[in-house]
């Protein structure tokens, strides 16, 4: 297997310049066409007195004293984003179905495979998109994006105050006969998940369950269910290694509900096309 190239470059701007692509091409040996593609994928950053931000335009003005950063990871840049599906465009925010494999958040090496970047490129009219909550890369389902900083702050506050109701559905190994509260600590922090059985498939010895959580620890649902002896089907981290590779993780965020004001309750719910209920 041929190793993918990975390097970073940091270029001090001694004099004001107007073309980032030209400077980075000369410094890296990559063509300007390739640099422009890399910029669009979110792997070029600029540090000024205002902080460090991604830049995507080749003709972005580069002030004297700034630092231009290129983060080149061939493996990341060659990834192709899965297609997200717009559920509702509400102007100041939108609701999407995030597919398996799509990221909630990018890294310094790029953000072209993220849900927010997909939204920025596919909404009409085009708008900036801000993440206000996350789904694991391996999970799928409803995700909410804000399109104004004011809206993002409002939704972040609602999530922090637990005023947004969320629920998930998962297909797990084994039979569940009653609702469970799973409260084992995760990473030495309090974690509470509620699991309610919905259906049981005797042939495959699998159950479909509804899950709600009171806390938001990393991989909380996956870890709690695995600890309870009911790993999620397709879980390559916490499930059965021999069977997990046969199917992607069957964990779907199926329900979102919140109130923007006293008379404006919003509810979004996925149907059986997306959720693992027969």
Characterization of this structure:
The chain folds into 3 domains: 72 residues, Structural Genomics Hypothetical 15.5 Kd Protein In mrcA-pckA Intergenic Region, Chain A (Roll); 79 residues, Pseudouridine synthase (2-Layer Sandwich), CATH 3.30.2350.10; 89 residues, Pseudouridine synthase. Helix content is 19%, strand content 32%. Strands 5, 6, 7, 8, 9, 10, 11, 12, 13 and 14 form a 10-stranded mixed sheet that branches. It has a 4-stranded antiparallel sheet with strand order 1-4-2-3. The two termini are 42 Å apart. The mean pLDDT is 93.
Summary tags:
278 residues; alpha+beta; Structural Genomics Hypothetical 15.5 Kd Protein In mrcA-pckA Intergenic Region, Chain A; Pseudouridine synthase; 3 domains; 10-stranded mixed beta sheet; 14 strands; globular
Brief digest:
This protein is α+β, with helices and mostly antiparallel strands and 278 residues long. Helix content is 19%, strand content 32%.
Fold blueprint:
Layout: E1 6-12, H1 20-28, H2 32-40, E2 44-48, E3 51-54, E4 67-73, H3 74-77, E5 85-89, E6 93-98, H4 115-122, E7 130-131, E8 140-146, H5 149-160, E9 165-173, E10 180-182, E11 193-201, E12 206-213, H6 220-227, H7 241-244, E13 251-261, E14 264-269
Parallel strand pairs: 8-13
Antiparallel strand pairs: 1-4, 2-3, 2-4, 5-6, 6-8, 7-8, 9-12, 9-13, 10-11, 11-12, 13-14
Helix pairs in contact: 1-2
């Amino acid at each position: 297997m041929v190793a993918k190239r990975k390097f970073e470059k940091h270029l001090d701007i001694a004099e004001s310049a107007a073309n980032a692509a030209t400077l980075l091409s000369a410094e890296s040996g990559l063509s300007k066409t390739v640099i422009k593609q890399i910029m669009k994928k979110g792997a070029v950053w600029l540090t000024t007195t205002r902080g460090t931000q991604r830049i995507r335009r080749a003709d972005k003005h580069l002030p004297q004293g700034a630092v231009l950063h290129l983060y080149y990871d061939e493996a990341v840049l060659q990834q192709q984003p899965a297609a997200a599906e717009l559920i509702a465009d509400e102007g100041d925010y939108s609701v999407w179905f995030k597919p398996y494999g799509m990221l909630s958040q990018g890294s310094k090496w790029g953000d072209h495979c993220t849900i927010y970047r997909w939204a920025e490129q596919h909404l009409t009219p085009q708008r900036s998109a801000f993440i206000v909550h996350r789904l694991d890369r391996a999970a799928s389902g409803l995700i909410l994006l804000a399109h104004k900083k004011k809206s993002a702050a409002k939704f972040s506050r609602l999530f922090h105050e637990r005023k947004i109701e969320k629920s998930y559905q998962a297909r797990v190994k084994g039979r569940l006969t009653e609702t469970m509260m799973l409260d084992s600590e995760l990473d030495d922090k309090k974690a509470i998940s509620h699991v309610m059985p919905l259906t049981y498939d005797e042939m495959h010895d699998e159950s479909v369950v509804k899950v709600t959580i009171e806390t938001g620890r990393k991989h909380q649902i996956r870890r709690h269910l695995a600890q309870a002896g009911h790993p999620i089907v397709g879980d390559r981290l916490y499930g059965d290694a021999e069977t997990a590779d046969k199917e992607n993780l069957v964990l779907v965020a199926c329900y979102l509900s919140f109130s923007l004001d006293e008379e404006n309750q919003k509810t979004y719910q996925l149907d059986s096309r997306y959720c693992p209920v027969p």
